[in-house]
Amino acid sequence: MSFTLLAVQILNGLQLGVILFLVAAGLTLVFGVMDFVNLAHGVQYMLGAYLTAVAVAATGHFGLGLAAGLVGSLALGFAFEVLLFRHLTRRDHLEQVLATFAVILIVTDLVRMIFGPAPLPLRLPELFTGSIRMMPGLAYPIWRLVVIGAGLAVAFLLWVLITRTRTGMLLRAGSTHPEMVSALGVDIDRVFLFVFAFGAMLAGFAGAMAGPILSIEPAMGDNVLILAFVVIVIGGIGAVRGALVASLIVGLVDTLGRAFATDLLRLVVDRSAAAQAGPAIASMAIYVFMAAVLIFKPTGLFTGERAWTRTR
């Protein structure tokens, strides 16, 4: 195992972790503030990628296309909340799960009907294509570095928003004492509306950033949704800082496990056994880690602390 290969896989893990954070941050805000289980969050991730790809193709400019994709994701978040999810907010979690699962099936089939099952390309500007030499023997794709930087910038802006602004104060108060906030004259339903739409925009941004790396196709949100829920369980429901830390941990564990599990097993078992067991162990690693967290700290790593937001 060379240092260069290890460095590349660490960067890949950070890039995956940042994508997961962008998805999980919106999901944990919706869950922590609204107490709403939104299985359709992966659909919003997928729609953000499609909207951006279509807008970039129509405008011929990546920046304009990305801005249009974010605005479209925000608008769809408003529409979903007003037309459907608002009526489910005060229902039990089972009804929320069933309704949002139906949204997954309907929207995925609609996208497949409109765009077809083939992957949709997302063209990057010349500035972000190619690789940059980070050290002797290590050249890393520019766009993946952009993804890491953008995700960390969003994390910082979220920290400022939640801890340093009046909006953040309302979010924290609404997540713990929504009835008291309503009694003070704040329209809590409007707060929930903006939280949901903002979470949808974050998911759409994640889809747009992942689009040039992964395939933009109708089912692209399924796997990332599962990983996002793993992140929320590990970090703590409603804890945005927990979502950041857990996302980076999950990204690194998953990436490094898939890259090196087989080689590490060869140190203790024969090559054929390592080749069979390595991929299976790598795919289970994050779930084993999640199980360990649930055993020793069932509420997650950051729940109960001042972790930007807290659950009710």
Automatic annotation (TrEMBL):
Which GO biological-process labels does this protein carry? amino acid transport
Topology in the lipid bilayer is annotated as: Multi-pass membrane protein
Q: What is its main location?
A: membrane
The UniProt entry, under CDD domains, shows: TM_PBP1_LivH_like
CC per GO annotation: plasma membrane
Localization, UniProt: Cell membrane
Spell out where the chain crosses the membrane.
6-31, 43-60, 66-85, 97-115, 142-162, 191-214, 226-253, 274-296
Query: What Pfam families does the record tag this protein with?
Result: BPD_transp_2
| Key words, A-Z | Amino-acid transport, Cell membrane, Membrane, Transmembrane, Transmembrane helix, Transport
One function term, GO molecular function aspect: transmembrane transporter activity
Is Cell membrane there in the keyword field? yes
Q: Which family does it belong to?
A: Belongs to the binding-protein-dependent transport system permease family. LivHM subfamily.
Provide the protein name: Branched-chain amino acid ABC transporter permease
Q: Which organism does this sequence originate in? A: Siculibacillus lacustris
